[in-house]
Amino acid sequence: MAEYKGVLGYCEVSDGKLTAIATEILGCGRRLANDLGQELSAVLVGTGVSGVAQEAIAFGADKVYVVDDPLLKDYQTDSYVAVMEKVVKQAMPQILILGQTSIGRDLAPRLAFRLGTAASLDCLELSIDPASKRLLQTKPVYGGNAQAVFTFSTEPQIVTIRSKAMSPLERDGSRKGEVITIAAGLEPPAIRTKMLQKVKEEVEGVKLEDAAVIVSGGRGIGGADGFKQLAELAKMLKGAVGASRPPCDNGWVPTTIQVGLTGKIVTPELYIAVALSGSSQHMSGCSGSKSIIAINKDPEANIVKLSRYAAIGDWKKVLPAFTNKVKELLAQ
Amino acid sequence: MNMVVCVKQVLDPEAPPASFKIDANTNKVVPPAGVPPVIDPYGEYAVEAALRIRDALGGKVTAISLGVNQLRDVIKKPLSMGADQLILLEDEAFADSDSWSTAYALAMAIKKIGEYDLILCGREASDWNAGQVGEGIAEILGLPSVTLVKKIDITDGKATVERLTADGHEVVEVPLPALLTISNEIGEPRYPTIKGIMAAKKKEPVVWKPADIGLNPSQVGAAGRRTKMLKLFQPVHEAKVEIVAGETPEEAGANLALKLRAAKIL
């Protein structure tokens, strides 16, 4: 029987392009493959994804497996797990890395159970144990209050990585690699679910994940109206508005702007947290920000402790004064 | 509609972060004094989802939980919310399970329950944040699954569900029986009514040991794990906050802007 060897990165493609998380997977996969002295492969699954294979090579893959089939137009658990089972049996990777996305979260565990191996989701760090050569997987637990390092002895070792936790390689268009096509071999009846509709809940302005400045509000904002003031500041700073979970659960803002363990992971230059306590699960989503500043009435709030600067007081009084001063400074 | 909902007893995730402590010798979390455990929040959303379906279509809701030292007042919450039955997989042998050994035992218990149209789990539990047990159960039982569900409609033996994506949601149709993992967007869990609490007091959970679900102690809990935890630690945050002064909140706000400009953050 063939031996499990090498690292395989599951690369998501969106609008005909390699996604940011895919380049991060290849960056971290390259490092692990080098540490093991083995190859890095990428796998692209979908409809019309073949054209992206060279891009995966440019971002570090030695080999790219492509499964391109009209039945793979939308992610569905049954079809994608079946295809990935086939890819893994052909590629026999020792390590399989996916992104902690709505696809990776679904695909990684089910594939792991199908293949009789295990998985660790939302990894922040991955490294090879020098002695055992096994993959050490560091992930947040207890809502980000703690982190744990996991390892296991079954193969492939499957992980998902958190977005922006790993760095991509510099794109190198001159890199050469091999492209291998694998037939999906799907029978439509094997796909038990049916995709009826895809709904985009577009938020105006800058996307949270791309924003250099984020103004985020919490439970203390008190309602949808308050978020208009945050939006005003965000617009002035060419940034985006975020929220912790309570404003989303209360319907003050769309759930797509939730920052946290189960929402978006953001890494802006500046994160302005207004009337937000800073629960561990929220901080999991924004702790990678370069500077965090807090406006909060409670000097003991967790967010204050985790900030660079904080102003203490009722946000309804602090924020307008802050916004006015910022406006003045920007006009200078 | 026969529904099975998987729940779990966890340390209260709403406890203040400062009360969170790890015993480095045992690699375990020290339960904070005076803060009782709770039902995992996402599991509670799953209970709510099941109760709403039963409210609309009738049927039976069975809650099932695996663990050790499950406090009756805590673990009976699904009953006080309105679930019909509670099954506990409770035995020392179930201690220190991972996603694999948990999913396997739950799947065997659900097999024993026999009749089900829908299995509901939370999207991930607030203790280990593994997010794998639901799909593990689906894979072991050979069921279709949809994860990250925020809305469920049942018609003609099919569920039409909304599944969260990064930029919105998808509408997916899945034939029953199926497994769904539930996200908080499904809507706030109901508060137990006095009537519900009284009814729950009278109902005793059914307790199953490994042998009751056809498993050896070596197949469950720590012995049945596939993963090994080498280390559990608290990440260190640099404490370096500077509180920006001001006579009034307004002054503090203006000074904060000046401070950011001086520090070249703005």
Uncertain runs of chain A are: none
Mass-distribution shape of chain A: elongated
Give the C-alpha Rg of chain B.
22 Å
Tally of separate domains of chain A? 2
Largest interface: A-B, 91 and 87 residues
Query: What's the arrangement of strands in the largest beta sheet of chain B?
Result: 11-10-9-12-8-1-6-7-13
Taking the alpha carbons of the first and last residues of chain A, their distance comes to: 71 Å
Task: Trace the largest sheet of chain A across and list its strands.
Answer: 7-11-6-1-4-5-12
Give the structural class of chain B.
Answer: alpha/beta
Oligomer category = heterodimer
CATH level 4 superfamily of the largest domain in chain B: HUPs
Strand content of chain A: 25-35%
What is the domain tally of chain B? 2
Arithmetic mean of pLDDT of chain A:
96
What is the averaged pLDDT score of chain B? 96
Global shape of chain B: globular
Task: Give a written overview of the molecule.
The complex is a heterodimer of chains A (332) and B (266). By secondary structure, chain A is α/β, with parallel strands linked by helices. Chain A folds into 2 domains: 184 residues, HUPs (Rossmann fold, 3-Layer(aba) Sandwich); 124 residues, 3-Layer(aba) Sandwich (Rossmann fold), CATH 3.40.50.1220. Chain A is 29% helix and 27% strand. Chain A has 9 helices and 18 strands. In chain A, the strands form 4 sheets. A 7-stranded parallel β-sheet of chain A has the order 7-11-6-1-4-5-12, with helices on both faces. A 5-stranded parallel β-sheet of chain A has the order 15-14-16-17-18. Chain A has a 3-stranded antiparallel β-sheet with strand order 8-9-10. In chain A, a hairpin with a 6-residue loop joins strand 8 and strand 9. The longest helix of chain A is centred in the first third of the chain and has 17 residues. The radius of gyration of chain A is 22 Å and the shape is elongated. The relative contact order of chain A is 0.11. Chain B is an alpha/beta fold. Chain B folds into 2 domains: 223 residues, Rossmann fold (3-Layer(aba) Sandwich), CATH 3.40.50; 31 residues, no CATH class. Chain B has a 9-stranded mixed β-sheet with strand order 11-10-9-12-8-1-6-7-13, sandwiched between helices. Chain B has a two-stranded antiparallel ribbon with strand order 2-5. In chain B, strands 3-4 form a two-stranded antiparallel sheet. In chain B, a hairpin with a 2-residue loop joins strand 9 and strand 10. The longest helix of chain B has 17 residues. The model of chain B has no long low-confidence stretch (mean pLDDT 96). Chains A and B meet through helix 4, strand 7, strand 9, strand 10 and strand 13 of A and helix 4, helix 5, strand 9, strand 10 and strand 11 of B. Strand 10 of chain A pairs antiparallel with strand 14 of chain B, so a sheet runs across the interface.
